[in-house]
Amino acid sequence: MISELNELKKFWKGKKVFITGHTGFKGTWLSVFLNLLGARLYGYSLKPEKNSLFKKIFCKKLYRKETYADISNFNLLKKKILQSKAEIIFHLAAQPLVIESYKKPITTFKTNIYGTINLLEVLRSSINIKSVVIVTTDKVYKTNKNNLSLNEDNELGGGDPYSASKVCKEIIVESYNESFFKNKNKINISTVRSGNVLGGGDYSKNRIIPDIIEAIKNKKKLIIRNPKYVRPWQHVIEPLTGYLILAQKQYNNKLKKIDNKWNFGPQKKNFITVEDIVKKINKLQKIKQIEYRKSKYTETRKIILDSKKAKKKLNWRSRLKIDDIIKNIIEIEFSNNNNFKNIMEKQIVKYFY
Q1: What is the pLDDT of residues 195-236, one digit of tens each?
Q2: What span, in angstroms and rounded, lies between the C-alpha atoms of 105 and 168?
Q3: What CATH architecture is 2-351?
Q4: Rounded to an integer, what distance in angstroms lies between the CA atom of residue 160 and that of residue 234?
Q5: Is-above-0.85 flag for pTM?
Q6: Residue 169 and residue 92: Cα distance in Å, rounded?
Q7: What's the rounded Cα separation, in Å, for the pair 332 and 342?
Q8: I need a surface site. Which of 79, 108, 178, 197 has the fewest CB within 10 A?
Q9: Which helix (H) or strand (E) is 41 found in, with range?
Q10: DSSP-assigned letters across all residues of 44-91
């Protein structure tokens, strides 16, 4: 499998890559991954939080140039993308939290919808960009008791503001593809949907792993909402690998224009409850006290992603079992030297062995 990593390095070395939302958790992991592959990075995002992974590993050093600004600033976004002469774009800038979307619905819709429209408008005037990957979520699907597994052709639907904003994002991308990019071979644009992404360095509010790590380190009570809910747990390296393979295939025009929606979900054994996650971590790092509560916010109870398309057409597959994912997280969060970046790079390379 190390040959896969070498193939990625061969393609990505020297490529100019523009990442929106590069200061976030997933954006930081993508930055480290692409830097390891030899890409030339340009970023556009809000300022990183003080306690963010981006800050902890001094990620700004990996960038040729970065801009801290709101994705809704169309003129500045356009200026920075065109100045970078980027060939490939990863669009991660978003309000990424369900509960936060209930508290700030206007911000959620503005960022997730208009931010995407701004990017797509920039693409209409770019002569350099060949491949674009736009990140949405597994929560874009309309779910019911009969949904055993959700593939890319299933009906879309979102009840909470976060999910609804991501559904709108999907529809908008489809509209632009049909209206402006359908007959243009020079640029290929896809949306990608992954599961509940885990990994060391996630400090987002109201997310299970950050809450658990904080409770362990501070020896305080852990409050868990919706313990019986099932989620498609996966390590952040897995969908990012899928995004990279997809972007490369698009760049080389190896995919049909209609192949522009992709699931990157975990293996079936990783579909377990929130309670199971807590118990597994508790065996390795003792949690002082655990209290289970039902959330006052409505969230999807069970989501199972079907990734057969990515396996068949991209030769991508999920590799890490849930126990391996947890060990990777603990390795970073409880490391003695706090050299997170080196550990992240080691985990990325190890993934391909």
Answers
A1: 889 999 998 877 888 899 999 998 989 888 888 888 889 999
A2: 14
A3: 3-Layer(aba) Sandwich (3.40)
A4: 23
A5: yes
A6: 12
A7: 10
A8: 178
A9: strand 40-45
A10: EESPPPTTSHHHHTTGGGGEEEEEE--TT-HHHHHHHHHHHT-SEEEE
